[in-house]
Amino acid sequence: MRPVLLPAAAVLIAFVPAAPAVAAPAEPQQKVPVATGYGGAVATVDLDATKAAISVLRRGGNAVDAAVAAGAVLGVTEPYSAGPTGGGFLVYYDAARRKVHTIDGRETAPKAMTASSFEGIPFEEGVTSGLSAGVPGTVATWDLALRRFGTLSFRQALQPAIEVASKGFVVDQTFYDQTAANAARFKDFTSTAKLYLPNGAPPPVGSVFRNPELAETYRELGRRGPGWLYGGRFGAEIVATVKRPPVTPGSTRNVRPGLMELSDLTAYRALLREPTKVSYEGLDVYGMAPPSSGGSTVGEALNILQALPHVGVHEYLEASKLAFADRNAYVGDIPGVPLKELLSDGFAKERACLIGDQALTPPVAPGNPDGSYGPCAQPTGIASPTAKEGPETTHLVVADRWGNVVAYNLTIESTGGNGIVVPGRGVLLNNELTDFTFGPAPGDPNLPGPGKRPRSSMAPTVVLKGGKPVLALGSPGGSTIITTVLQILLNRYDFDMNLEQALAAPRATQRNTAQTQAEQGFLDAYRAELEARGHQLVLNPEIGAATALEFLGRDKVQVVAEPSRRGGGSAMVVRSR
Q1: C-beta atoms surrounding 151 within 10 Å
Q2: How do beta strands 537-539 and 516-518 pair?
Q3: Terminal alpha carbon distance of the chain
Q4: Which stretches of sequence are listed as region Disordered (predicted)?
Q5: How far apart are CA 484 and CA 562, in angstroms?
Q6: At what angle do helices 294-306 and 345-352 cross, to 10 degrees?
Q7: 3-state secondary structure of 183
Q8: Helix, strand, coil percent values for the chain (each to nearest 5)
Q9: Largest CA distance in the chain
Q10: Contact 405, 423 (CB under 8 A)
Q11: What is the pLDDT of the chain when averaged over all its residues?
Q12: How far is residue 59's CA from residue 52's CA, in Å, rounded to a whole number?
């Protein structure tokens, strides 16, 4: 046993075919972060989304049906993190075929975008603009997932979200705080101010927030299908908003128009991709391939740690530092990403040999994943910085009675996306294109380009043992997603924590940056030890907001959400016994 790393710290869907009666527990009226039971399980950041997914499972739907229903509800209740005009990545374990599939629903750049489109633009000015809006991938993801792996129609899967948007949800402190933090830019767009700043201020905590325009948008999507967005009237309205943002008269904000055309929407496709895979201590860890860097960076760090004789806090930070150096140098939506070599044991051993008693001085240089590995090769590449990446994403996990599992990250990038609501549609646009490197940066794999998908850190992850799932997890948090997922895996499998402890434990994130960000509990426990070894630490009050589930044997499953981060999450099972 290796040493411990950290201290432990309903919407009914009448049209789904009725399943056999089960002893369903009473619906909670408040978020509960941990649930254990049988017949299926769900964890999201939001009680309404979790209830919707559980309702789908109870009435005979499968994990994909439930995940899409929950994702659509999150577009209502977590609109600053998710929505039909965003994107994401979905990892699905198919129990019947014992196979892991992944769907790439990442947004794409318009055909008119070039490597220099963001050059000279301040980052925050790029965020709040039409220029930052990528071609949405979420609706295409839902459609592809349902057609290939689900049992519900597209229209049926949207019904819970329509009901929540119509009837409303209770504003909590997190929603209020996020609205207030965005109020200065929300007021600069007529459509956004009308929806999210009624009477000129954020909706108060405890009030009921309704979004009838989004309810109607979902109804039309259900009636007309995804083509209504990808080339139809809704798509035309998105393009018009991108090209002519509805700026409030008198606003002094410099709002740049975007480059999107209707033909960009018509050309969009969500893609089935092969997952990444590494073996770690007898487990098979599956994740997302590029343009996500989640699977490759988590996987490389696990390989590096497995090559070390001892793993503790110091080694965790150093492995993450090295993996991020290689991520920044090699991973993007480009041909020829050396994914096989980045995830090879030989490359991991070559990188692991650089880890000693003292911290490597960041930024460290990338390695050379060329297939020819010596006992301890010194890197000769040039380090590149870890670019800014919006922290607000959301993640959910679902398991059904048949053993199918979904881990799903969806996002609109920054909190509130680009700040612009499509007039009459009740939905914010994304700012995903600011995930590209702004440049100039010759040779950077993540420079923008026509049709490219910006590199992401989203890391929905499914872990198998003997071909069957044992764990699924993921988190929001921008580039801290990778370290959050990595740390939870280490907590669970190396450091003798159960799943609840693994999520609750205090976090730290090292992404090849001069300072390691850490939560207060981590600083309290490890600051003196790590600073003595050359690490520089700085407070980050909150890192990630994970959801996860674990199979406990005999069809029993435990599902876990955050107890407090980002307001806490909601976990439920179909039946408790």
Answers
A1: 15
A2: parallel
A3: 33
A4: 439-458
A5: 12
A6: 60
A7: helix
A8: 35, 20, 45
A9: 66
A10: no
A11: 93
A12: 11
Q: Which two tokens stand for residue 218?
A: 């979902």
- Report the C-alpha gap between 342 and 262 in whole angstroms: 37
Residue for token pair 């630490």: 537
Alpha-carbon distance of 148 to 136, in angstroms, equals: 20
Rounded CA separation 569/190 (Å): 32
Helix (H) or strand (E) holding 76: helix 63-77
The per-residue pLDDT for range 498-550, each reduced to its tens digit, is 999 999 999 999 999 999 999 999 999 999 999 999 999 999 999 999 999 99
**φ, ψ (nearest 5 deg) of residue 120:** 80, 0
Please say whether the beta carbons of 295 and 89 come within 8 A.
no
Buried (b) or exposed (e) across 89-98, using 16+ Cβ within 10 A?
Answer: bbbbbbbeee
No. of helices (H) and no. of strands (E), the chain? 17, 18
Rounded Cα distance, 488 and 472, in Å: 11
Cα–Cα distance list, 379 to 153, 326, 330, 360, 497 (Å) = 52, 10, 14, 12, 35
The pLDDT, as a whole number, for residue 376 is 84
Place of tokens 């979790």: 50
Round to whole Å and give the CA distance between 66 and 53. 4
CA dihedral 518, 317, 475, 410 (to 10 degrees): 110
Cα torsion 433, 437, 443, 446: sign: negative
pTM: 0.94
Question: Residues 141, 393, 394, 483: which is the catalytic one?
Answer: 393
DSSP string, 196-242: HSGGGSPPPTTSEE--HHHHHHHHHHHHH-GGGTTTSHHHHHHHHHH
Mean pLDDT of all residues in 104-113: 98
Q: What is the pLDDT of residues 425-458, one digit of tens each?
A: 999 999 999 999 998 899 999 999 999 999 999 9
Rounded Cα distance between 375 and 346, Å, is: 9
The answer for residues whose C-beta is within 8 angstroms of residue 570's C-beta and 6 or more apart is 28, 31, 32, 33, 43, 44, 45, 46, 47, 49, 50, 51, 561
Amino acid code (one letter) for 125: E
